[in-house]
Amino acid sequence: MLPALALLAPLSLLTPAARADEGMWLPEQLPDHADRLAELGLQLPVSQVADPMAAPLGAIVSLGFCSASFVSPQGLMLTNHHCVGGYLQVNSSAANNRARDGHLAADRAGELSAGPGARVTIVEQITDVTDQVVGRIGKGTPDRKRQAKVEQARKALVAACEAKPDRRCHVASYFGGAQYRLISAREIKDIRIVYAPPESVGSYGGEVDNWMWPRHSGDFAVLRAYVAPDGSSAEYSPDNVPYQPPHWLQVDPTGAQEGEMVWVAGFPGHTNRYALASQVAWTRDVYYPWAIGLADAALAILAEESAASPEAAARLASPIDMIANGRKNNQGMLDNFRTSGVVERMQAREGQLRAWVAGDPARQRQLGPALAELDTIVARDQATWQAQNVVGRLTRYSDLLWVATTAVRLAEERKKPDLQRDEGYQARDEDRIRARFERLERSLWLPSDRRLLQLMLEQAQALPADQRVASLDAWLAEQGGVGPALDRLFAAPALADTAQRLALLDQDAAALAASADPWLGLARAIEQWAAPQRLRDKERAGAWLRLAPLWMQAVQGARPGSVYPDANGSLRVTFGRVEGYSPRDGVWHLPHTTVAGMAAKAGDSPFDAPERLLQAAPRAPRSRWADPALGDVPVDFLATLDTTGGNSGSATLNAQGQLVGLIFDGNYEAMSADWLFDDALTRSIHVDVRYLLWTLEEVEQAGWLVEELGQAPR
Amino acid sequence: MLPALALLAPLSLLTPAARADEGMWLPEQLPDHADRLAELGLQLPVSQVADPMAAPLGAIVSLGFCSASFVSPQGLMLTNHHCVGGYLQVNSSAANNRARDGHLAADRAGELSAGPGARVTIVEQITDVTDQVVGRIGKGTPDRKRQAKVEQARKALVAACEAKPDRRCHVASYFGGAQYRLISAREIKDIRIVYAPPESVGSYGGEVDNWMWPRHSGDFAVLRAYVAPDGSSAEYSPDNVPYQPPHWLQVDPTGAQEGEMVWVAGFPGHTNRYALASQVAWTRDVYYPWAIGLADAALAILAEESAASPEAAARLASPIDMIANGRKNNQGMLDNFRTSGVVERMQAREGQLRAWVAGDPARQRQLGPALAELDTIVARDQATWQAQNVVGRLTRYSDLLWVATTAVRLAEERKKPDLQRDEGYQARDEDRIRARFERLERSLWLPSDRRLLQLMLEQAQALPADQRVASLDAWLAEQGGVGPALDRLFAAPALADTAQRLALLDQDAAALAASADPWLGLARAIEQWAAPQRLRDKERAGAWLRLAPLWMQAVQGARPGSVYPDANGSLRVTFGRVEGYSPRDGVWHLPHTTVAGMAAKAGDSPFDAPERLLQAAPRAPRSRWADPALGDVPVDFLATLDTTGGNSGSATLNAQGQLVGLIFDGNYEAMSADWLFDDALTRSIHVDVRYLLWTLEEVEQAGWLVEELGQAPR
Known about the structure:
Oligomer: homodimer
Largest interface: A-B, 37 and 37 residues
Number of domains of chain A: 4
CATH class of the largest domain in chain A: Mainly Beta
Largest sheet of chain A: 8 strands, antiparallel
């Protein structure tokens, strides 16, 4: 840290002192930060930046799991390469492996459908609905009833909202349920792949470089949104036309210099910034070590199976990436926790909070009991975590078991009126479920599915006595143990056939209950444990809804100033500067990497850069996209922004609101920022728009796309 | 590289542009660099800096294998911890392991003798003797005779010089034998250890951090020179008194800041800056891979034997370090050669040189034949390298075989008049040989000696047919092969006994030849091959003496400007600045490390920092030795100086000629600087004098030493 300041001292003559910028702000909170934004150099009125329906925020959209942004009046969008992996997989075959080789559409006709499940949502209205959701719930309402009322109110709001055509709506909860907003978005259903680089560019360095700096990933992709000729949203059709968005971003080809203001608007998924210290300590001491051990076991299986054939490798690449990424995240958390004393700092902060509460009798009366009850709930969670997590992974690691449990559950939910069905299993969700059942055709791999199921069934059998899943134990005993059960399940699994899998969705609960398919038997056994567990979960959620606002009241009271809600997938804004950091004494991570640095890493996989890229690299310093100060085309850069998963693909904007890059990762040294933001260490990692422009122009010879991105012809 | 420049751009507003400073200059060459020295900020007259007999150069001394400097009028000297390992070992026992634990003398009486072989030499006169050495050798003199004449002239000059009492003289050769200087030095024979830190401070990070940055080694030690009461040099005696040097350095406790001028005067040992490209390419492709393989085999043996007992570990620590250090050097060279294209750049430079020669008929006539002959000699070297290197390591890896061959060789040389004896085996060398024979008592370990000898004998048996060592083959056949030979050699080796070992030195050649000791038999077999080999080597040396001046003429002609001679153990000056570097794209190595960074690395060996150091560490930022900009006590720092082995322990001086640190290493990324200096990558690594002062004052409570170093009492 200190050497870094020393090195930056001369810089500070030119720019204001370095300062980290914690906060995933709601757009409406930005006026509170007008001074800081001015200090950073924002050139737009704060009121404009705070308006989600005006440019530039109006150009930011969601892909569901990632962010993206419009960059041309013809519906062109930029996002990360790692956000379009699924889109590429549905367009891949053994003969034409687009997931590996990427895709460049030579013209509009060459733009490939991203598949039936692909969706873009464009926020059109954000309404505070706190009063409608919790305003009329009496203080003494029992927890389970409280949860049900909130759930009902949210579903009713969503249903009314989605009565309009092409709408996708949801009610987001903020500050643990103290506030609610109804977010109404236009949904576009025909998404096409315009350009995706080869995997060896888009995720250059693969798992080795994942989360790491220096980084040289060209983690970008170009999509286009299409609508029906009449402008309405429509599923893919060759007759569809490019969507003309109300707002799109300008691209600034001068990029972002060290020290320059950058900001990001996007849809960060989940953070735990207001967790209890006891939750963090338990996560460190119990959960992460367990999750890492299990991930290692699963990865060992997947690696073995993957080595068996190129087909297995192609099908298992995505689950391996996902589990390895989670494992590296968990390990990174543990490393960060140790080096940065995260738990100790959260404990100290919580100690101050508890002292603040206890220090005033009125506060103690109002908040003290809530703190005590939260402690009790957390203790109970920590006593029953293992069964929940084992069952959760049981139906996640085995694709076929996921199909069976989803079908059984959906059939059960269908018995209820739509508004009473659980979230995720309503009529509005059925298309997505069907699309996922269909997509399994391209990723299902029975040998690994069997071994992963075996791994998790053995885990279930090793659960402690007080956490046994009795119905699963009984089913396994009936089968004669894990081995015979697996033999039966995998003898001729009907669910491996796409038609039979989809047919499940047309059967009612009675038909499924009558089925002799062993997969459905196993699913019923699990559901027998899960159904009452869900009721307990709902009761806990009701208690949490009651207590969280009090907890946040204590948080805000003990730590005055503007407080932002935890990430929840809703639109947020974070701002800061392009800046390096010191990962350890004596080392400074520079804020930019270059094409020369990318080429210097080239070699075996995962650094198997394509030949055409390496051949173009020596000319990069003389290209029009080269940075004069760096003397080369920049590849990736660091900034002090506060981001997390879900922000991937978000446009990185400059002080004029122009696009200078795409955020795609955070740094290893600050993984624990999901729990506690670290001023000195937390950095976001972005791909520089100049690397995209250079790649399109000099490597892919796709000048027409460079022009559609607003750049002059070469 | 480029990101570094970009980052430094603001710095350049304050200081002149960064520029690397190649050159190990003779002091007399410094006036050629007056402009650059002024630009760097030198505050002393260049004439003063260029005078080896004035301060500050007059305070720089040699320990033989390392440099050191006087820092008080009472003969106090500073050098590196890694330079006093041998001194500590002779003062170590199982009960009091000073090599591991270090030593702090509570008072003068507690200062420990560094042992009978320890010497300090203080340069008193440097005389150009080129004319005496080569001035009267006729052009047509045959090569062997040329070599003999040069050798004779050098020995005669040394003998005359050493006729004065307390003198140690040598004739150094520059530019491959184009110039010679007689260096006359005063020799002091009573050296004492005042302070050495524990090994876990002095070589903190051990082999893991060796050559690496960021570095946190406290690689310093404090010695004192003693003389007889009458001021003459004398071997250790309790009656001796501290030597009062004519010059000593002032210590500047404000240290060296980033960008500040620093310079080093010392005794760099060996570089190959003017090698032929074919020599470098061969070294990369043949020699280093072979040497690495052999080092790995030796290290595996030493590691196994070392694990057997604490005594073995103690005795083998030093050879393990030495071989591991050499291996890492060789591997680093290969890495550097690859990443920096050293061979390709030397080939390109030599291509220009050859074009320059060929481009002019007169030059071609004068220099062309010399180039062709050099090519022939290099080709011959490369055809016979293996036998020479195997025999070389045979007598280096086995201590007992080294004893036997040294005794046999010395007895042979003693037959001749002293001036005709080979260098290293003259009367003046006998004390040193005796001291080494004696010191073996503390390091000899028979189990590893046997296995290393076996390794090398097997290497000898695997030599290609055209490089067999016939006399060794015959001896081995006589013994019945390697196994029986080893059994006989190690049955009851007389040479393992110190008295019997020393007694060898009192026997004449005839007595040794009559001995039935199998070690002497083996030594005689080797000598039978080595003696004619030495004659061929001398002939080659004579040719080289004839050709090297022509080669240097071509080097200098093709590349005008001041040229410095290769390092040869004589006094040199190098200057530059405190500055970091970029080891790879996206990363900058900061020029200072801190006590906090040292503490953050603490853990298992080799990072087993002593408890008292770790306890003092958190208070370092508030100590009087803390750097205000860093906010902590600096540990090590980087500079752009041009140094190599032998410079270790040299005082690092500031623009006022005050001591701010001690150089102890170079960086891994620029190991190949011994062949080719790389402007962007070559850095020297120094321990900051403030770390020494802080350690003495805050960790060791040795305030009296801090005061003797010219600092105010706390």
